[in-house]
TrEMBL record:
Residues 83-175 form the Bacterial SCP orthologue domain. InterPro entries: SCP_3 (IPR041629). This is Bacterial SCP orthologue domain-containing protein. It comes from the Bacteria.
């Protein structure tokens, strides 16, 4: 049995072809990929996928934060509330992506009790309550960030409180699609 495992990994390493791996849209941080007889694992130092022995199951692991987003969306779709740690990780990851998409300090986005960030270029706010604030709950934010909810609908029905001239985030959403 050991010879078969060694042979599978060796044949994968000695394959006369190159494998180009692209991450699916909206998924970043793949750590390993199943390729049938073994799997390829991303090197921490170079980021290149290298062949290694087969894992116990055929699962593609994602970035833990994207996994949290996926788990939160699944729980919401099932009419359940995700675990607090999962919901928090999903919110923080999506807020981080929002800041990457729209860096700046003119709008404060608040998702109590988990996090608040400043984003969008413009006049910088330094003290007190900022003039441009967006506040909503975690479920609504995850829905907006993943495209499950529309900005206009959530603002009109009161699930999102947006004040200020720069507080319209509709151009920045969705952040990811699942």
């Amino acid at each position: 049995m050991e010879g078969a495992e060694h042979h599978a990994a060796a044949s994968l390493a000695e394959a006369p072809f190159q494998l180009m791996i692209t991450e699916p849209a909206g998924v970043t941080g793949l750590q390993w990929l199943d390729v049938g007889h073994g799997h390829l694992e991303r090197s921490h130092s170079t980021g290149i996928f290298l062949p290694v022995r087969a894992p116990a199951c055929n699962v593609v692991r994602m970035n833990p934060s994207m996994e949290a987003v996926s788990r939160a969306v699944s729980a919401y779709a099932a009419g359940e509330r995700p675990e607090r740690a999962v919901e928090k990780a999903a919110v923080k990851h999506l807020l981080g992506l929002l800041v990457q998409r729209a860096p700046g300090k003119s709008v404060e986005v608040r998702i109590p009790p988990y996090a608040a960030v400043q984003c969008v270029e413009g006049t910088r706010h330094t003290r007190g309550t900022p003039p441009n604030v967006v506040e909503t709950d975690a479920r609504t934010f995850v829905g907006l960030a993943t495209g499950a909810l529309a900005w206009a609908d959530t603002v009109s029905d009161g699930r999102v409180h947006a004040t200020g001239t720069r507080a319209d985030l509709s151009e920045l959403l969705p952040i990811v699609t699942l």
